[in-house]
Amino acid sequence: MKTSTRFENAITKLYTAFHNDTLNPEDCNQCAIGTILDHKDSWRHMTNIHGSVQLNYVGLVHQNLGRRFNGYTPLELLKIEASFLNGCGYRLGKHFCHKPDYIDKTILFNGLSEVVATLCQIDHIDNVMDCSQLFGHHVSLPKNITLQV
To answer: Residue 14: phi, psi to the nearest 5?
Structure first.
C-alpha cells in the first residue's frame, strides 16, 4: 500500500511516543497533534476548545491561506486531535471537553487506533489498523445505526 510522506512521518512519531510513554492527551505538546507537530503547542491557538473541530479566527486565517503544518491543514489537525480524545474516552461537545476518570495504556491505544483511522481517512487509504480482511470478517451495523463522518 502506498502512503504519503506526511502519513509515514505521523505514524512513526505516534508509534515512538506511544512506546516511550510520552503520549499524553492532557499535554498540548504530547497529545496526538503535539506529537505530530514535533512537540509544539502552537496548534492549540487554532481553536477555542480542546477537542473541538471548529476553527477560531486564527485557525480560519491559516486554513484560508492554505497553510499546512507537517503536511496537515488546521482543520485536519483538529479532526485528528478530536479522534484521539474521542478514542481515549473524552466526551466532546461544541462548547466542552470532559476528560475520563483515568487513562491507561489500553485507553491510549484506543485513542491511537482512532488517530490512525482518521489519518487513513484523510489520505484516502484503507485503515491499516483494520484486521477484518485478514480474518475474512466484515463488521455490519444494524440498519438503524449510521456512522457520522
So the answer is: -65, -40
| Structural domain range at position 85 | 5-135
Q: Supply the DSSP string of the chain, one letter for each residue.
A: ----HHHHHHHHHHHHHHHTT---TT-TTTSHHHHHTTS--GGGGG-SSTT-----HHHHHHHHTT--BTTB-HHHHHHHHHHHHHHTT-EE-SS-EEPPS---HHHHHHHHHHHHHHHHHHTT---TT--HHHHT------TT-----
Report the pLDDT value the prediction gives residue 128, as an integer from 0 to 100.
79
- Residue 107 in any domain: the answer is yes
Mean pLDDT calculated for residue range 129-145: 59
The predicted pLDDT at position 142 comes to 53
141 in a structural domain: no
Distances in whole angstroms, Cα of residue 141 to Cα of each of 78, 90, 138: 27, 23, 10
**For 10-68, how does the pLDDT look when each residue is reduced to its tens digit (9 = 90+)?**
999 999 999 999 999 989 899 999 999 999 998 999 999 888 899 999 999 999 999 99
State pTM to two decimals: 0.83
